[in-house]
């Protein structure tokens, strides 16, 4: 129910004269989730932001240049190297999103993952992606040059709970017919610590902390206006800092699903 209240609340704030910098930030999502793709792959970028009843258009930017598309989703039918770069979006009731990077590679195989840095006990999903999804056989995922997982037919490799031993260099290889091909090597890093991350600007004090129960405690409140948005299953809370213009300090709620503690 509370998700439905966010756009309504934004409309009330705007009608009350809320400044542009007080609007929530738009968010760009990739579908499928892989930010590294091969030439000829199709990619959809989706913009999550608030719209007013009078204007439901979306502005898209590629490497800071405005794209003609005004739909909430931007579709790339057959990716080329020229499609690589940073993508941002904005709606009339949200500010410009953070950039999302898209990398278009040339090759037969590409090792894909949602990201390359994980925390202990995070699940890891690896995919040995072939050009044009060509049939691939006798697929091996390798870590630090040693075989980690073998499939007779191409399949994704899942690590349910990451440990520090899962850090290292990874690549995959397999057979196209009788041709032996390999992907480029990528590095996966497993870090220790809780899943919450404190975000701060240089020279600005941390404005809050979160503990493993998901409850929030503010050490300093630099501004009376609180900005929050949903990022996957995390609630991200920030406050504007008067000490560093155009900069926000904040934190992520380090509990999933949400825990609303008092």
Provide a descriptive summary of the structure in words.
The protein is mainly beta and 262 residues long. The protein is 5% helix and 44% strand. It has one helix and 23 strands. Strands 10, 12, 13, 15, 16 and 17 form a six-stranded mixed beta sheet that branches. The chain has a five-stranded mixed beta sheet with strand order 2-8-7-4-5, with no helix packed on it. A four-stranded antiparallel beta sheet has the order 18-23-22-21, with no helix packed on it. A hairpin with a 7-residue loop joins strand 22 and strand 23. The chain is globular. The N terminus and C terminus are likely disordered.
Record the SSE blueprint:
Layout: H1 2-15, E1 27-31, E2 36-38, E3 43-48, E4 58-62, E5 65-67, E6 73-76, E7 85-91, E8 100-105, E9 109-112, E10 117-119, E11 124-130, E12 137-143, E13 146-153, E14 157-159, E15 168-176, E16 179-182, E17 186-191, E18 198-199, E19 209-210, E20 216-217, E21 226-231, E22 234-240, E23 248-252
Parallel strand pairs: 2-8, 10-17
Antiparallel strand pairs: 1-3, 3-6, 4-5, 4-7, 7-8, 9-11, 11-14, 12-13, 12-15, 15-16, 15-17, 18-23, 19-20, 21-22, 22-23
């Amino acid at each position: 129910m509370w998700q439905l209240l966010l756009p309504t609340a934004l409309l009330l704030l705007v009608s009350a004269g809320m400044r542009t910098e007080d609007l929530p930030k738009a968010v760009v999502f990739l579908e499928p989730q892989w930010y590294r793709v091969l030439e000829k792959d199709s990619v959809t970028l989706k913009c999550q932001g608030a719209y007013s009843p009078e204007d439901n258009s979306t502005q898209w930017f590629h490497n800071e240049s405005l794209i003609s598309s005004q739909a909430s989703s931007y579709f790339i039918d057959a990716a080329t190297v020229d499609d690589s770069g940073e993508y941002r979006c904005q709606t009339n009731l949200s500010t410009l999103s953070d950039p999302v990077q898209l990398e278009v590679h040339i090759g037969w195989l590409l090792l894909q993952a949602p990201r390359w840095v994980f925390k202990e006990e995070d699940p890891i999903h690896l995919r040995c992606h072939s050009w044009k999804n060509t049939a691939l056989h006798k697929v091996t995922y390798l870590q630090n040059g040693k075989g980690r997982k073998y499939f007779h037919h191409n399949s994704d490799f899942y690590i349910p709970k990451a440990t520090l031993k899962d850090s290292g260099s990874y690549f995959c290889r397999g057979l196209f017919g009788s041709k032996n091909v390999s992907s480029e090597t990528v590095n996966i890093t497993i870090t220790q610590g809780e899943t919450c991350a404190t975000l701060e600007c240089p020279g600005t004090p941390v404005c809050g902390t979160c503990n493993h129960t998901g409850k929030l405690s503010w050490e300093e409140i630099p501004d009376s206006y609180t900005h929050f948005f949903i990022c996957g299953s995390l609630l991200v809370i920030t406050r504007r800092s008067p000490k560093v213009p155009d900069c926000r300090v904040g934190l992520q709620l380090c509990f999933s699903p949400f825990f609303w503690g008092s």
